[in-house]
Design goal:
The complex is a heterodimer. By secondary structure, chain A is mainly β. Chain A is built from two helices and 41 strands. The chains are: A mainly beta, B mainly alpha. Chain A: It comes from Paenarthrobacter nitroguajacolicus (Arthrobacter nitroguajacolicus).
């Protein structure tokens, strides 16, 4: 390119540069912002990827290595390892598992004392010191045991350093009782039970009384403070006496719950309510109903009358003051009634003392069909003749008796039997 | 299109970073494989902590410094803010040196001075945002490449008729786009034919032809200029 043209072009460009100068700084800022955002985005992705990979590997390891977590050892602890006779402490058992976790063991722990004459342990884990000595208490769970050495010290000269009453506050219903425990700490680190030696007092005996062993009896609604004092130290417990809550219905039933009645038979039903305090009572404000009045009807007072054959549900509904509805049902089966009972042969019979005659009862039901129910036989004078399952046997005394049979309250005709006397010829069986 | 110089991330893997990476991978492997741990927590929790520390060490002490170094080049600052300011100062220094040259080329390539200014600023912005690693003289060629690419797109947009082009009163207005790019980049930016071919993505022979044609036309322009 010719130098002249080049200079012309450069001059032309220079003029444009002067009139339209480029802002390099702004362009540089915008580019730097893009770099900053890109680097920060990359770093953020790296951190998130690290966390996601960690979580994925943890989940994978947990999935691949999952197996039964087993109990490896048990640690037994107590508020104090040194006790005085009669003192009680609550032992705690903590299980150490194969996955490294720890968990308090509560249910299913078998507690035992190696020397029960020194201290005994109840199934709840409560250890009671009995006499001076050293014993080990063990907690066993799933075949794994843990041990704690308990020392029972004889009452010595160590001074009482603290006294507390447990529980420090309790709520008891009117008329109820609660046992408090006075627990003392001694200078030698031992714990002792002071119920019998401490002086017990109530600031409001009208509300709660306390006897010499720390047994509190709730006498009136309110709050009282019970104190136990010994050797200038005092512990206290707050007792709140509340009114007994009214017993509430927990269930409703019908007596009888299931029964079979004869056609025409009537029976009084009862609605029985069960209460939260364990008591029961017959309810009168009950609405009775029959599932099928053609089979059985029921009066407002609960009198059921069997009407037609079949089964029917009798219902009782009781609504409490708070609107809760209780409902109970009873199943009633209605069956045919006995229409007639006929005993034959009709007699009369003459029997010598010791002689017998066999009678038979024929039972007919309301549907006309015969039946074979349990028949009750009776002799008008058993000293003259006895009857057992229809067999009449003459007695030692002469005379005349009437033999009858009855089923479900329906009596038969009478058959005359003369013992030791002449009698007319027996008639035909009806 | 415009290619950045290759950056090798392997040069950023220093012995210290390699050692940290190995230790982090070891922690991850230990957390994955170890059957038990010495601390009193569930094994899975401890394994998670150990693996998490390994992954975080890998990310924070190895990956993130390498990313910063690839993006910004060697910088004495560990923190991102100062490192970005260092890099911005470095780019500013180089752009300042190249500014006059680039501005001339921009206005010679584009007859509309306003568009030339706007596209030059855009090219600087893209170059400073995309450039990775230490700043080298190649930055000038890269910026010119971005400018030529923006100019090409701008002319395509003008040909679509969405905006009427401003009359080009430059003496180079009589050249075609390829001829104008070739002659400006060759005679003013002092680029070789091969470099121009790389920027325009045309064969070297085509660039040479465009250059020859442009030379012929500019001779004519020179004569007319001489008459004037």
């Amino acid at each position: 390119m010719k130098t002249e043209l080049r200079e012309v072009l450069l001059a032309e460009a220079a003029a444009h540069i002067r009139t339209h100068p480029a802002d390099m700084e702004r362009a540089l800022e915008a580019g730097t912002d893009r770099v900053r955002n890109r680097v920060l985005r990359t770093w953020l992705v790296a951190i998130v990827a690290a966390l996601v990979l960690t979580a994925a590997l943890v989940a994978a390891r947990a999935f691949l290595t999952q197996g039964p977590v087993t109990l490896e050892s048990i640690g037994v602890t107590a508020p104090a390892a040194s006790l005085r006779p009669e003192a009680t402490v609550r032992l705690s058992a903590e299980g150490m598992y194969s996955d490294g976790s720890r968990r308090a063991l509560v249910d299913g722990v078998a507690w035992a004392s190696e020397d029960p004459s020194v201290a005994e342990v109840a199934g709840t884990g409560e250890a009671t010191a009995l006499s001076a000595g050293v014993t080990g208490v063990t907690a066993t769970f799933d075949g794994v045991s843990g041990r704690l050495a308990l020392t029972v010290t004889a009452p010595g000269t160590a001074p009482l350093t603290a006294l507390r009453v447990t529980p420090d506050q309790s709520t008891v219903e009117l008329g109820g009782k609660v046992q408090l425990t006075a627990e003392g700490s001694y200078g030698d680190g031992s714990l002792g039970k002071l119920n019998q030696t401490a002086v017990w007092a109530s600031d409001r005996p009208a509300v709660a009384r306390v006897d010499g062993d720390g047994l509190v009896t709730a006498a009136a609604i309110g709050t009282a403070t019970i104190t136990a004092s010994e050797a200038g130290l005092q512990g206290a417990s707050s007792i709140t006496v509340t009114a007994k809550p009214p017993a509430r219905i927990t269930g409703l039933s019908i007596d009888p719950a299931e029964i079979t009645l004869k056609q025409g038979q009537a029976l009084q039903f009862r609605a029985v309510a069960g209460y939260s305090d364990g008591s029961t009572a017959n309810l009168t404000d009950v609405e009775w109903s029959s599932g099928d009045p053609k089979r059985a009807t029921i009066s407002a007072a609960g009198l059921v009358t069997a009407q037609g054959l079949g089964q029917v549900l009798i219902s009782a509904v009781h609504v409490t003051d708070d609107g809760t509805q209780w409902r109970a049902e009873s199943k009633v089966s209605v069956e045919h009634a006995v229409r007639t009972v006929v005993v034959g042969p009709a007699g009369p019979f003459v029997l010598q003392p010791g002689g017998t005659v066999q009678l038979k009862a024929t039972v007919t039901y309301t549907d006309g069909r015969p039946g074979d129910p349990v028949v009750t036989w009776a002799s008008s004078r058993a000293i003259i003749a006895t009857v057992n399952d229809g067999l009449v046997r003459g007695g030692a005394v002469q005379g005349t008796v009437t033999i009858t049979a009855s089923v479900d309250g329906v009596s038969s005709n009478g058959v005359t039997v003369n013992v030791g006397q002449n009698a007319p010829t027996p008639g035909p069986l009806e | 299109m415009c290619e950045l110089p290759k950056r090798r991330w392997r040069s950023s893997v220093t012995p210290l970073r390699f050692l940290i990476g190995v230790l982090a991978l070891g922690a991850i492997a230990f957390g994955w494989l170890a059957p038990a741990f010495p601390w009193g927590f569930p094994v899975i929790v401890q394994a998670g902590v150990v693996m998490g520390v390994g992954f975080l060490a890998l990310a924070v002490a190895v990956f993130m410094p390498i990313v910063r170094e690839v993006e910004l080049g060697l910088t004495p600052s560990v923190k991102l803010g100062p490192a970005l300011r260092d890099r911005q100062a470095e780019l500013r220094s180089v752009f300042e040196q190249q500014k006059g040259d680039l501005e001339y080329c921009a206005h010679l390539l584009c007859g509309d001075p306003e568009e030339a200014r706007r596209m030059l600023e855009a090219a600087w912005s893209q170059a400073s945002g995309a450039w990775k690693g230490p700043v080298t003289p190649q930055l000038r060629v890269y910026t010119l490449c971005l400018y030529v690419d923006l100019l090409r797109k701008h002319q395509i947009w003008l040909r679509s008729g969405k905006k009427p082009p401003k009359p080009d009163r430059s003496l180079l207005a009589g050249l075609t786009h390829d001829q104008r790019v070739a002659v400006v980049l060759h005679d003013f930016a002092k680029l070789t034919v091969a470099e121009i071919a790389g920027i325009t993505e045309h064969p070297v022979a085509d660039v040479a032809k465009s250059l020859a044609a442009a030379e012929a036309k500019t001779k004519h322009l020179a004569l007319e200029g001489g008459k004037k």
